[in-house]
Specification:
Number of domains: 1
Distance between the termini: 49 Å
Helix content: 55-70%
Structural class: mainly alpha
Largest sheet: none
Number of strands: 0
Order of helices and strands: HHHHHH
Strand content: under 5%
Shape: flat
Length: 154
């Protein structure tokens, strides 16, 4: 019988983010908001690109290969933006506890409908607006204790 040793917690896991003395572009709170903004932007670009397929012979040839969506510059911009958001997310995970990082990333659920409404012309119902307000309130409830802890460390 193979017995795996029990893993112990190490100090390598990030605790409350320390932002004192960091330049603004390395601040974990800035990075997590940047990651969320890049993910939202990527989704908006991908959506626009997927709904505007190429016409003509090139579009027909790509459609036969199952790659018609790759003809759209919006899709390529969305992929590039997604990769930039992923890089920011990796920096966040290095410097912020996962529960807190995910809390901030959930703001995407509140902000994405605004982008879809403004840029894609999608309808957003009152129920969706109320849900976005609840998500934002939840993030504030989770982030407030972390901010207070940060103030205590500074």
């Amino acid at each position: 019988m193979l017995v795996m040793p029990r893993q112990t917690r190490t100090s390598a896991r990030p605790s409350a983010p320390r932002v004192a003395g960091l330049p603004w572009y390395r601040n974990p709170y800035v990075l997590v908001l940047l990651a969320a903004a890049l993910n939202i932007t990527s989704d908006l670009m991908l959506s626009r690109g997927l709904h505007r397929r190429g016409d003509g012979e090139q579009g027909a040839t790509l459609a036969l290969a199952g790659a018609a969506v790759l003809a759209s510059p919006w899709v390529w911009a969305g992929i590039t933006t997604y990769l930039a958001g992923f890089a920011a997310w990796l920096s966040v995970l290095r410097s912020m506890p996962l529960y807190l990082a995910y809390s901030f990333m959930s703001l995407q659920q509140a902000v994405a409908p605004i982008g879809a409404w403004l840029w894609l012309g999608e309808a957003v119902t009152l129920r969706r607006w109320l849900g976005a307000a609840l998500v934002t309130a939840g993030v504030l409830l989770i982030a407030a204790p972390a901010a207070r802890a940060e103030e205590g460390l500074a």
